[in-house]
Design a protein that fits this description.
Blueprint: E1 14-15, H1 16-29, H2 33-41, H3 69-78, E2 83-84, H4 86-91, H5 94-97, H6 102-106, E3 110-111, E4 115-118, E5 123-126, H7 129-142, E6 148-152, H8 158-171, H9 185-194, H10 204-209, E7 212-216, H11 220-223, H12 227-236, E8 241-244, H13 250-253, E9 254-256, H14 261-266, E10 270-271, E11 275-277, H15 284-296, H16 301-304, H17 307-313, E12 314-315, H18 317-326, H19 329-336, H20 340-352, E13 356-360, H21 362-365, H22 370-383, E14 393-396, H23 403-408, H24 420-427, H25 439-447, E15 453-457, H26 461-464, H27 468-475, E16 480-485, H28 490-493, E17 498-503, E18 512-513, E19 516-517, E20 520-523, E21 528-532, H29 546-557, H30 566-571, H31 573-583, H32 585-588, H33 591-594, E22 601-602, E23 619-620, E24 641-646, E25 651-652, E26 655-656, E27 672-675, H34 677-683, E28 690-695, E29 704-712, E30 719-723, E31 748-753
Parallel strand pairs: 1-9, 2-3, 6-15, 7-8, 7-13, 8-11, 12-23, 13-14, 15-16, 16-17, 24-30, 27-29
Antiparallel strand pairs: 4-5, 4-17, 9-10, 18-19, 20-21, 21-22, 24-31, 25-26, 27-30, 28-29, 28-31
Helix pairs in contact: 1-3, 7-29, 8-29, 8-31, 9-22, 15-19, 15-20, 15-22
The structure holds ligand MGD (2 copies) and molybdenum atom.
Amino acid sequence: MTKDVVEDRVDMPAGGWGSAKATVSILAQEHATVAGTKAIMRQNKHDGFMCVSCSWAKPAHSHSIEACENGIKATAWELTSKRTTPEFFARHTVSELLEWSDLQLEDQGRLTEPLKWDAAADRYVPVAWHDAFLDIGARLKQLEPKSVVFYTSGRASLEASYLYQLFARLYGTNNLPDSSNMCHESTSVALPKTIGVGVGTADLSDFEQTDCIFFFGQNVGTNSPRMLHHLQDARKRAVPIITFNPLRERGLVAFTNPLSVAQMVTGSETQISTQYHQVKVGGDIAAVTGICKALLSAADVARVVDMDFITEHTAGFDEFCAYVHGQSWEIIEKESGLARSALEMAAHEYAKARRVIVIYGMGLTQHRRGVEAVQMLSNLLLLRGNIGKPGAGICPVRGHSNVQGQRTVGITEKPELAPLDAMAERYRFSPPREKGLNTVETCRGVLDRSVHAFIGLGGNFIRAVPETALLEDAWQHLDLTVQIATKLNRSHLVHGKTAYLLPCLGRTELDMQRGRPQSVSTEDSTGFMHPSLGMAEPASRFLLSEPAIVAGMAKATLPASPAVDWDKWVGDYASIRAEIAAVLPEIFHDFNQRRRVPGGFRRPLAAVQRKWKTPNGKANFIAPQSLVEDPDAPERSPDVLRLMTLRSDDQFNTTIYSLDDRFRGVKGTRRVLFLNPADMRRFGVHEGQRVTAVTAVADGVSRTVPGLRVMSYNIPEGCAAGYYPECNPLIPLWHHAQGSFVPAAKSIPIRLLK
Ligand SMILES: Nc1nc2c(c(=O)[nH]1)N[C@H]1C(S)=C(S)[C@@H](COP(=O)(O)OP(=O)(O)OC[C@H]3O[C@@H](n4cnc5c(=O)[nH]c(N)nc54)[C@H](O)[C@@H]3O)O[C@H]1N2
Ligand SMILES: Nc1nc2c(c(=O)[nH]1)N[C@H]1C(S)=C(S)[C@@H](COP(=O)(O)OP(=O)(O)OC[C@H]3O[C@@H](n4cnc5c(=O)[nH]c(N)nc54)[C@H](O)[C@@H]3O)O[C@H]1N2
Ligand SMILES: [Mo]
């Protein structure tokens, strides 16, 4: 409904020659061409390694190159020939490095040796592994376990993650926040209540059989490009794809398959979305309510909704209908920013299709009402029995390559989700039973000084979380920070009084233990478990694997126990898998055998069989509390914009590959603010002008990001967009999804200062 729009900034399909060029250039930039090219042939193959980029499904029968531009970038980034050595740290103090950008820091290449911060010199200096473990262990023993946090970024393997959560629990805490707390936790909270599973139900076979796809708030061309192949196949079968996104993202508009010679040579492209609805930021609950209203008001409603399914399988239908009928078209149009006719068009396609998949991402989960937004999608699917039948289902696109799997093997602050009883029996201890800290609660604990130590298994916590300014200050009061990482980032520079930086092997690298190469395992977005074997020469001979580092710390911290054999586990990862299988038999029985099957094995998902593991044994319709996106500001002040923070085409989370965003026409800077031209006139700002964004909440804290360059963009009025993590200082810590604590990074209320 945006009346005054600029043409799309860039008019090229996702993939195509732009993608081929970007791939060659990143391999050259990292001087990784030979090793990189060889590695790419093994990426996402059953006998190779699982990509370190996104978690999209890996087919059993792969293409000759089962990788995408961004997966190749991530591989090249890890296989770079650049090194961040002790000599580098001898040349630069930590205070000096704090002035460097994210791009400059990681661009130094792979960390090579374990390091300890030397307070007198303000430098990281080399330390022997053994001494590092002993000192970390001694310090942890002095601390109250409830004041120590064990964070995981979603890349660590099932094996490393399992050992890590076991270490935390043997030590005495459930403080196991992970990156999913900032990501799909809204899914993990929403779906168990509606369909009784915390993950998606659709898999690749469903993509082959579906006859309609809905897309909400996920940028496939950049963040899960391999999915474009499945979408392209679906489009060839004339499957309609109906997209809801405030921005016209290139990958959702058109795609040229870089692996298809014909498409590359002829320059042809596949249209991806058949309907494109530029919903207002945070307007999805209203939009889906509109679709449901159209369906439930249809003259042939008895045919449109699947009454047999609803009667047999669901609860809450009458209340849901009453809610939907109670919402006027006027409020639906106002809150969604979409016309009734547009929503009726979407409803029409939905009603025609017998098998529908709904795909979604951060555009839904990172809102104050992110949980309700996800539930609204499951309501839509339940209306026509689109859960638990072939070709249909819900498809949350997970982020990090093993983020879903980590939760499966016990990385969670919620004790009820971890196999505590089985671990108690097997390892003969009393696990902590009280709830641990999630990411937002960890930040609160750092601010109120109740958290005293932070261990990070990967990631860039301080850059990824909200409330940057206050947290960076408070962080320095931590007694101990330990970061296990492959490359230098800001979270290593903002550190505690005692600080360690421990370098580890990446997943692409050969991991030798007791003279034998070890493979690890990951779970993809569709619930399939895959083996992953690294092959590249390690970046440095001093690197240890993540399981070895976790075990090293654990042995130095915990009393010895005959039931817990860290040395055996690290010596042979098959023995870790045997532990996982023993503790979580329903999912992982015969783990070591079953993972050999090409395509991997899938975890059981009751909802796929139309068995509902909800308290009432039914699939539940759950109506939202309101269509208004921000519970704090039911009436929007006209000078307040809703800012969404996004990823560019050239970054992986806080890892920035370059300052360009090919798909959005941005070059040489990430400090931009996309605005609708009508809003630019209203605020009296012109193209290229520098403005300061100020968070528009009245809680006594001043939050600003200065120096943002205004760019006119095809975005609904009242909405703005900027990049993550540059805009994170604008997000108040309390501005998170109700129920899931996911920071509401997609709807930050801001004002502009000229
Ligand atoms: N190359 C690459 N791949 C990645 C990542 C990366 O950084 N780079 N990150 C990984 C991780 S951890 C994750 S979680 C995923 C993230 O992948 P996505 O879920 O795609 O996340 P974002 O890039 O944040 O983009 C969200 C999309 O939602 C849209 N959006 C924003 N607000 C709204 C809204 O209110 N409604 C709707 N309908 N849409 C909205 C935005 O325009 C954007 O297209 O990707 C993973 N894969
Ligand atoms: N404003 C805003 N904030 C957001 C988001 C947003 O959309 N907007 N998205 C959120 C989301 S979805 C996520 S998932 C989080 C991401 O938060 P994190 O997962 O914490 O951050 P990353 O940027 O993925 O972490 C990058 C670092 O991981 C380390 N690393 C890379 N590979 C490995 C490895 O194999 N092992 C180890 N040990 N370390 C490794 C490197 O040192 C690298 O610097 O950010 C969240 N924050
Ligand atoms: Mo994520």
